[in-house]
Amino acid sequence: MTVTHSQHPRPWIPGSNPKRIPSGLPGGQGCRWSLAAIFCAVISATACDGTPQEVSGGKTRTSDPPTNLLRLTPETEAKAALRIAPATTGDFRIFREFPATIQADANRLAEITTLVRGRADEVLVDFGQDVEAGALLATLQSGELGLSQAGFLRAHAKLTVAERAFQRAKALLEEKVIGQAEYQRREGELLTARSEMREAHDRLRLLGMAEPEIARLRRDETIRSTVFIRAPFAGRIIARNIVRGEVVEMTDQLFTIADLSDVWVIAHIPEKDIAFVQADQKVEVEVTAYPGESFEGRIGYISDVLDPATRTIRLRVVVANPHKRLRPEMFAKVRLWTKPEPGVLTIPATAVVHDRGENIVFVQVEDHAFERRPVALGEETNGQVKVLAGLRAGDPVVVDGAFRLKSELAARQHPMAIQ
């Protein structure tokens, strides 16, 4: 549009200071403009250029907020080495881990002592040795056992005499040679002898003599003051506290035998985690000696009483140990799983990045285009995290390379901050 100016001068406005506008400004050579006209021209020029600010309603409005959509060239995407996988639904379980120690099964553990004082004559086993039930572990020489055997032989002889006397008295009573009183006296002596014989026999059994040895003593009438220490069941020698020539007392613990085909794993569960303990749940045990390997166990006992000092309950897990790899006093870790929760949406934990106080993922919306999407997350287990909101099953999520996408999007949204 062409502007035509009048040849007559503009009327004078009080307070104004008209000046001649140089020929380079609108209006041509010699045209005189007021300050108000100049201000309007400046505003019009500003509105027409490419600056990002506008005047609307008396307020300055910045450009539109940065988009959450990130587009990449094929070359950039290939360089980022992205890996994409869909969000999936399925059974979801979480677990808790608790420190524990391995112990021998107390029902298959024997601490062997002697029932008579004596001197160690022979020690036939050593640490770590496997023994069968009834195997001879050591022998002792005991004067007390010799005295007990002599008492047994006296009781046996007295019983023999009493039996013969009773049989004679019985025959004489039938012949009416003796009276009833004499017969009853002989019968009483027989009953007393039998009682003393049983007492002597039981004492030898308490001192460790087996029935074959007692039968030999009755037959040969030869006193042998040797005490035989035998294994009560098959197992492994895990402790030995006796040496040859040592005098041992009845209170001394000579050997400890353990059947390690099963072991106990003892853990102490804090009060806040008691809900994770259930009688029929799966239990995994890991030990420091075998990293990356787990052993399956079953719960054998859950304490009914809370320890008031530690605020924990005692948990006992029974683990099969056929190859004897698990040994008492090893440090272990017990893993308790919850029951499966069906239909839970999960994604790999590597897909989640943190940005401005939010958990976000990147979802592929089309080829070479990815959307930044905030998500609400739940528990995490075995590298999978539960998604509460923000995704649907099947959404293609960037599981490797999400951090690079976050950095690229931030650089495009805030280039000056990145510089």
Task: Please characterize this protein's 3D structure.
- The chain has helices spanning 35-48, 74-80, 143-174, 180-206, 211-220, 402-413, 415-418, and strands at 19-20, 32-33, 54-56, 59-61, 69-71, 83-86, 88-92, 95-104, 109-112, 118-123, 130-131, 136-141, 226-230, 235-240, 247-248, 255-258, 262-270, 283-287, 294-302, 312-320, 331-337, 341-348, 353-355, 358-366, 369-374, 376-381, 384-389, 396-400.
- Residues 1-65 have low confidence and may be disordered.
- It has 4 domains: 1-60, no CATH class; 69-92 and 342-414, conserved putative lor/sdh protein from methanococcus maripaludis s2 fold, CATH 2.40.420.20; 143-224; 260-340, Efflux pump adaptor protein, beta barrel domain (Elongation Factor Tu (Ef-tu), domain 3, Beta Barrel), CATH 2.40.30.
- The strands form 8 sheets. It has a 6-stranded antiparallel barrel with strand order 8-17-20-19-18-21.
- Helices cover 25% and strands 36% of the residues.
- Helix 3 runs antiparallel to helix 4 (180-206).
- With 419 residues, it is of the alpha+beta class.
Distance between the termini: 45 Å
Question: Rough shape?
Answer: rod-shaped
Structural class: alpha+beta
- Strands, count: 28
Biggest β-sheet: strands ordered side by side in the sheet: 8-17-20-19-18-21
Q: Under the CATH scheme, which architecture of the largest domain would be assigned?
A: Beta Barrel
Largest sheet: 6 strands, antiparallel, barrel
Tell me the fraction of residues in β-strands, as a range: 35-45%
CATH class of the largest domain: Mainly Beta
- Helical residue percent? 25-40%
Number of helices: 7
What is the name of the CATH topology of the largest domain?
A: conserved putative lor/sdh protein from methanococcus maripaludis s2 fold
Number of domains: 4
Q: What is the radius of gyration?
A: 49 Å
Give the integer mean of the pLDDT values: 82
Low-confidence segments, given as residue ranges, are 1-65
